[in-house]
From TrEMBL:
Protein name, entry field: Amine oxidase domain-containing protein
Domain Amine oxidase: 4-260
Keyword Iron attributed: no
Chief location category: cytoplasm
PANTHER family assigned to the protein according to its UniProt record, in alphabetical order: FLAVIN MONOAMINE OXIDASE (PTHR10742), PEROXISOMAL N(1)-ACETYL-SPERMINE_SPERMIDINE OXIDASE (PTHR10742:SF405)
Swiss-Prot/TrEMBL keywords: Cytoplasm, FAD, Flavoprotein, Oxidoreductase
Family matches, as InterPro entries: Amino_oxidase, FAD/NAD-bd_sf, Flavin_monoamine_oxidase
Amino acid sequence: MSELPDGLVSYNRPVRCVHWSNTKEKQNSVMVECEDGERIVADHVIVTVPLGYLKRHHSSLFQPPLPLHKLHSIQRLGFGTNNKIFVEFDAPWWDADCDVIQLVWEDEDALVDQVPDVQRSWIKKLFGFTVVQPTERYGHLVCGWIAGHESEHMETLSEQEVMHAVTQLIRRFTGNPSITPRRILRSQWFHDPWTNGSYSHLATGCSEQDLKNMMEPLPLNESKARPLQVLFAGEATHLCYFSTVHGALLTGWREADRLISHYSSSNPSARPTSKL
């Protein structure tokens, strides 16, 4: 960021719509329409919003709408919620050489995707803790993991309610009624309006072709309109490393290299130097 000119990056500028063209007659640049009414003209736009956001807002985010095969892939791919609950203590209740704490319930086989009483039993979906290291830097801290519908319900509770449930859980499994967390901090990816969940997964009914459709630029290759108007990056567009941070990073590099290659082939004498 320090290498970029001042004022080049804008924050807190929600986008209402990305206007592109799929016809030869309209050769204008891509136009990004912001929520505040500002219109930004560009040669190319790289869309990196999470799949959950695309699922909810694809119909209004692109004009003209996305091609049907791309839309179907957005619908078929899975996008869930996996939250973290960081819990801090004054002293450790785990062994010094402990890295992971996993919880096993006697009736664990009864846990299914749709728990009848999520409000009462959501804490059972917290399947364990990771001990955050090193202690010298983070103190006595563990990170709890919870996913699925129970994770979404957890987001609706107050921090006090979450702390109480986690406290009772730890006391039950350790048999120590005096364990009391100092404080907690939890993520809320499902109710975040810009994510609507955490990351993608291969759902039943989808295939590798859906991931290829996700990464396909607009307009399509057979179109006679100006190419590479809208490009797509993000973890849900990587063929192998979907659902990961490194997958998201690699797709950003991929789309930057796609544009570098485009300009290199169209004007070899003006070949740009890539720092990626």
